[in-house]
Specification:
- By secondary structure, the chain is an alpha+beta fold.
- It has 2 domains: 215 residues, no CATH class; 143 residues, no CATH class.
- It is built from 11 helices and 11 strands.
- Strands 4-5-2-1-7-8 form a 6-stranded mixed β-sheet. It has a 3-stranded antiparallel β-sheet with strand order 3-6-9, with no helix packed on it.
- α1 runs parallel beside α11, α7 packs antiparallel against α10 and α8 packs antiparallel against α11.
- The longest helix has 30 residues.
- The protein is elongated, with a radius of gyration of 23 Å.
């Protein structure tokens, strides 16, 4: 009886922790999309900023009804422009005096965005360009600015973060290695903030250190057995999502974002449920491969928004793929030794495997309901 109570306590603690973490894990990370064309002294561009981010920083919902209308946005055009332009500067021989010339709205895969049309004139037509981006960094260190820059006809992309928000570019200078490394870092970052991808992978890895014999469960005999199972799962997942990521990023195959995100949530539900009520006992790599195809379309969403530079397309795509794999392997490397060491303990079997799978199931069901039914069950 006491043992049963202890098991229930373990499950309750993990469920409580998972539900507490929901607000930060259930929604897409904050991004803005900045496109700049600098030709000599002339600067033109467009800046797409999510209305939810502007509301978070400035409070757009005037009547507090949970909906942001065009009227509420239009009434705050001057405030939005002043707020945004106070967090972006472009210099070329001095300040280029960027100004907002037009306000529009547009829809991205994750919601409605304010669109700011930009214009400016730089003092010099030949000096190096310096961009200083600091939108939302004081409120959200996970925020990223996805930049597409054309400087005197030469295109390049960058991901602007608190550490890389200041960018200096010389005219005519483009490094293939820097583009590769930029997309490599973005791939690592994308998997680390992709909570649904991580939970799916962990749900498949949790049973890797366990063996079922009838209704009994015990730890595997050797680390090699667990490692072999993990390698099968990770390799299958990698091959599958690399295929569809490439197809989607090159726009050969395109699927509606809502379908993809709902299917990813469903894959987490099924993986967690299979741990609690086993249907697939062996060859979990097949499950990893099948659902990995769907996850690849999810990975591709950031590349679709960021855009792949035409002159370094293959290198950039390769860098992003390798970044995703590097981030994934880091998670596996941190998880597997600990899981193997704890495999024979009641804590792992009930507190990690059973309660962890139950918590994952709850989280994924909420994601599925939100994405499939376009609901908002929790707030970020």
């Amino acid at each position: 009886m006491m043992r049963t109570i202890q098991r229930l306590r373990h499950i309750g603690v993990v469920l409580l922790l998972a539900l507490t973490a929901l607000p930060c894990a259930a929604h897409k990370a904050s991004d803005s999309y900045l496109v700049l064309d600098v030709a000599g002294q002339q600067v033109s561009g467009q800046w797409d900023i999510a209305l939810r981010d502007i509301d978070f920083a400035q409070g757009l919902d005037a009547n507090s009804d949970g909906e942001i209308t065009w009227g509420e946005v239009r009434a705050r055009h001057a405030d939005i422009a002043a707020w945004a332009m106070g967090r972006l500067s472009v210099q070329r021989g001095g300040d280029c005096g960027l100004q907002v010339t037009e306000h529009l709205v547009d829809t991205h895969t994750d919601g409605t965005y304010a669109v700011l049309r930009l214009s400016g004139q730089c003092p010099s037509a030949v000096a190096p360009l310096e961009l200083n981006y600091r939108l939302l960094f004081d409120l959200d260190t996970l925020h990223r600015g996805l930049l597409r820059l054309k400087l005197d006809g030469l295109e390049q992309t960058a991901v602007l973060s608190p550490d890389t928000g200041i960018l200096q570019v010389n005219a005519g200078e483009s490094s293939r290695l820097s583009q590769f490394l930029q997309y490599l870092v973005e791939g690592v970052w994308h998997i680390w903030i992709g909570f649904d991808h991580i939970l799916f992978l962990l749900a498949l890895l949790l049973p890797a250190v366990l063996v079922r014999q009838g209704r009994a469960v015990h730890g595997v005999d050797t680390f090699g057995v667990a490692l072999r199972e993990v390698l099968w799962v990770v390799t299958a997942f990698t091959v599958a999502h690399s295929l569809t990521l490439t197809l989607a990023a090159l726009r050969i195959v395109e699927l509606p974002s809502r379908w993809v995100e709902s299917a990813i949530a469903a894959s987490v539900v099924l993986a967690a449920a299979n741990n609690l009520w086993p249907v697939v006992h062996r060859r979990l790599w097949v499950v990893a491969f099948c659902f990995g195809l769907i996850h690849g379309f999810g990975f591709a969403s950031v590349l679709t928004e960021l855009g792949l530079p035409t002159d370094t397309l293959v290198l950039s795509l390769l860098g992003f793929n390798l970044g995703v794999e590097a981030g994934q392997l880091a998670i596996v490397a941190a998880f597997l030794p600990v899981a193997f060491a704890l495999r024979s303990t009641q804590f792992y079997r009930w507190g990690v495997f059973t309660a962890g799978s139950a918590a994952t199931l709850v989280v994924a069901l909420i994601w599925l309901a939100e994405r499939a039914l376009n609901l908002k069950l929790i707030t970020a």
